[in-house]
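Lab notebook, bench 4. Still working through the backlog of constructs that have no structural model yet. Next entry is a single chain of 67 residues. Request: give me the structure tokens for it.
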Amino acid sequence: MVGGFTLTSFPGPMPPVVLLENLSGATYVEGHEATPFVKAFDRIRATALSVEDSLARIATMEEGHRG
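Model written out:
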């Protein structure tokens, strides 16, 4: 899967909705068709740094650019 998407989840029985945008317009995907996007988002979130680690990484990168 390549490209950006917007995943919107709702509480309760409402299925997630995915928005795919490109130069020719937009497509909405929902229900079972949204499952690959939900799984991709879960993988992204699982590998993301914590807030604390993100701030530390940014500070380290900033220090390296100050010279």
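Notes after review: The mean pLDDT is 92. The chain has one domain: 6-66. Flag for follow-up if needed.
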